[in-house]
Amino acid sequence: MQKKLAVAVAVAAMMAAGSAAAQTADNGVYVGVEGALVTVNSIARPSNAVNVSETTDVGALRALVGYQFNKNFALELGYFATDDFKQSGGIRGSATTYETKINVKGTDLAVIYKFTEFLPGLYVKAGAVYSKVSGSVSARNGSVSASASDSVTGTGYLYGLGYEFNVAQNVGLRVGYTRYEKLGGESENKGNMYSAGVKYKF
């Protein structure tokens, strides 16, 4: 009887340990990095601008760290920086030409919800972003040139979705889309980020 009781206790202990492992398997810290394409609809033009050309799609990098609370919910902090959006052209009625460069750097914080039943790996996210939009403009008329720069900072918000899957026990790949609103705190500054990256879970 005692042997049977000891075996039963041992089996129960193993089952409890297995259950605890299953519950914590989806918990923990993760880090990652993403390469991205960021697009904007347009860049503000000077008055009377002519022969304008624009670069509204640029590359970006995003580093991230997060904590997975369970199989569904995670909190993720990211830092991103873009290449320069560019615009160049001339001013009607003069020989003046100009070139504008704009880039964005920011920190975002988002809650991520990952589906486990409908389509495992699919996730949606929403959160806030604090960013700085920096711009510079240079103008030239013959041998005369001038330049100026400025920046704005502020808080906005984001939402998006993506898909991730594991390629090893602690390594996953992800692709995603994020919409950033009010970059630099300005309501007209909006961007779309299409990203792909790798994630490592500790």
Structure notes:
It contains one helix and ten strands. The chain is elongated. It has one helix spanning 2-24, and strands at 28-39, 49-55, 57-68, 73-82, 85-91, 97-114, 122-141, 144-166, 171-181, 190-201. An eight-stranded antiparallel β-barrel has the order 1-3-4-6-7-8-9-10. It has 202 residues and is mainly β.
- The mean pLDDT is 88
Q: What profile does the largest beta sheet have?
A: 8 strands, antiparallel, barrel
* Gyration radius, rounded: 25 Å
Series of secondary-structure elements, N-terminal to C-terminal: HEEEEEEEEEE
Q: Fraction of residues in helices? A: 10-25%
Low-confidence stretches: 1-24
Total helical segments: 1
**Total beta strand runs:** 10
Distance between the termini: 44 Å
Shape call: elongated
Strand line-up of the largest beta sheet:
1-3-4-6-7-8-9-10
Classify the secondary structure makeup into a structural class: mainly beta
Overview features:
202 residues; mainly beta; eight-stranded antiparallel barrel; 1 helix; 11% helix; disordered N terminus
